[in-house]
Amino acid sequence: MSYLTITDGLSEVAMYHPYEYEIFHSLYKNGMQRLIRGDHAFVNRSQVHNWDHLLSEIQMGKFGNVRLFRDLVNSSCYKTLCEASENVINGLLAECEDCDINEAKERVYFECRVQGYLNNAAYYKQVWLDHRNPLLDENILDMIEYIPLDMRVNRQLYRNTVHHRYQELAKIPYASQSNMEGWGRLLSTQSEVRDFAMSEISDTQSGIWEYFDRRGLESLIQKSRPRKSSAYRSIRKIARSFINAKSPQLISELRVRQNEQWPKAHRALLRVLALKKWYDNFVT
Predict the structure, then answer these.
(1) 224 contact partners, CB below 8 Å, separation of at least 6
(2) Bigger pLDDT: 46 vs 14
(3) Dihedrals phi, psi of 36, to nearest 5 degrees
(4) CB–CB of 256/52 below 8 Å?
């Protein structure tokens, strides 16, 4: 957290592995010097069917549509944030109204979402390694726009390339779940993470409470839940694939409904605590 405060001040702490710094320090000591990334260029996980589905698929949405925020943000600024969000989202969609909807999804993804987290996610890696994202070069992204959609869905081109050109590498299975810490479990049980969150919420001197409701944040801790088991997630993934093959429109509706419940309680809480840290250091 100290490192993040010095370099940026406002970062998404929940996106780091708890031992990421130590992991990359160890890799550096064992001779690794450069880290090449770029699978973000092959973004299209699935096709979308309408504008609401587009936003839900890349986890963006209008502030006022997220039920969680209604109890989290103080009424004095809630309306302002809803209006600002509405204007930004409508402006983005207006720029894409003449595009194919799946092309529009990728444009919004690259211009907004990737830029919002890619550099932040690289912080701990950049401490020790030369971190590069060559496939996000503008010329390469322009070329990818001409690749047929069915080669981009589920990053099919990326997977085919690895399979044919790097067969030894292809033997390593793709990750089927996140390797992030189980923040929901740590916040819902007695732990140092829960104690830290409670101590921050109990800090009545912070000016951040002009914008956020402390009681609402306390309730987020109560709403935090452990991550579902790997077996549950596997079954859900299979069921989702089956339903998508039979009724893509139903999947679209489910994703939109799910987006109204996003972010999860623990993610929202950690975001606010990161913002509080920044606010306390640079504003209060």
Answers:
(1) 183, 184, 187, 188, 264, 265, 266, 269
(2) 46
(3) -105, 125
(4) yes
